Predict the 3D structure of the following.
Amino acid sequence: MTQRESRPTQRKSKADRRLDLIDAAHRAMIQHGAEGVHLNQIAEEAGLTSGAVLYHYPDLRDLLIEAHHAGMERFYERRMKKIGGISDPAEKLIVTIRSGLPDGPDDTGVRLLCELGGAAGRNRVYATLLTTLFDRQVSMYQTILETGAAHGVFTLAQDSETIARNLVALEDAYGYRIVARHHSIDPDKAVELILDYARLATGNPLRPADRR
Amino acid sequence: MTQRESRPTQRKSKADRRLDLIDAAHRAMIQHGAEGVHLNQIAEEAGLTSGAVLYHYPDLRDLLIEAHHAGMERFYERRMKKIGGISDPAEKLIVTIRSGLPDGPDDTGVRLLCELGGAAGRNRVYATLLTTLFDRQVSMYQTILETGAAHGVFTLAQDSETIARNLVALEDAYGYRIVARHHSIDPDKAVELILDYARLATGNPLRPADRR
DNA sequence: AACGTATTTGAATCTCGCTTCAACTAGCAC
DNA sequence: GTGCTAGTTGAAGCGAGATTCAAATACGTT
């Protein structure tokens, strides 16, 4: 990327290089699949040789796990940042829903998450990562819902955990639809569909028109 | 599996063998991933050599696509069969929801579908297969919802397409959770969560206790 | 400026899966 | 039974990716 001549690969500290590699692994996995990815593809993305990659990660699986972990962390942190400053529960809920969906079919963050769905059935580590992320998102929604209820803005039709789980589930599923390029479900449409449920569950009209 | 001596591989007609191979590919993909699977693994599952597999499918990708296609068809047909005889809309809806979820983490049919989620972002054929399946399931739910509304059993809070899409989306997402062995979301819990939404959307209490 | 070390390379080696194909054989037609 | 054909094997060759490691080198330290 930022390489003067692209001829002599500049050296980096262990920590810096590992961050580069995590990023390179991220890109390579999106192109070739979380399980179909090859060492050389990652090395190429990082602008290194395969030997250098192995020097930092003798076991490639460790790198892949770290890349997934970092991807999830980034995904979650980005959401928290987006909703951080919002105090109105209704607006917060709307923005949260939007931030859980991919920008479009090529959103790299969500693409990586989708890669894991199938592998989780075979790989306990991946299953744990995904499950943990799911539960964290549920908690996040629960907080918003309960705050809204406490302020009298929401009238919850079900307990907050049920609503929160269903909201996260809807997000996940529409994420997959968007990544698969469904002809009539784009990010805006997905938000609308999820909001249709959220309205029933919170008793709030949740008008997204003027916000964001 | 059903082989007397396991020594001489019995010959089969082209059509029969292709069915065997589709089945073998199905099993191999679940064990090794939709994209990480190797020719030899499929051959072994089928009790043949790699040469024999290539004789029937010179391009392995064709076999994989057919296996996925067949898997989806079976999944869909099985659902239709389960709900075929039910006339009461409420019961039909409940049974339909249940039939869209895996029996457990090892349900092979759903496991295969989950494999495709990530690949769909990279592979147009897989994306189309998944999208088509989604739309068919939406239609299925729409029919049930509208029939129920016509009979006065359901009072739809939203248009039938919205409800149907959300129901399918919830099914999909909880399928992933179950496959990933979420500690507190098993098939029964997932049905309950989806029914919680369905109750709001249909205005029907949908008591699953005595049915099924 | 010279040293020492952490990082990276490049080539050699090894492994493994894919591909090809001539030879073999089971089952069908006659 | 004889012959024919389609299905299958097994071995050989090929290529790609993983792995190893000695040599090279960039960079911080002194």
Residues 124-150 of chain B form the longest helix (27 residues). Chain B has two domains: 12-70, 74-202. Residues 9, 11-14, 17, 48-49, 51-52, 55-56 of chain B lie near DNA strand D (CB under 10 Å from a C1').
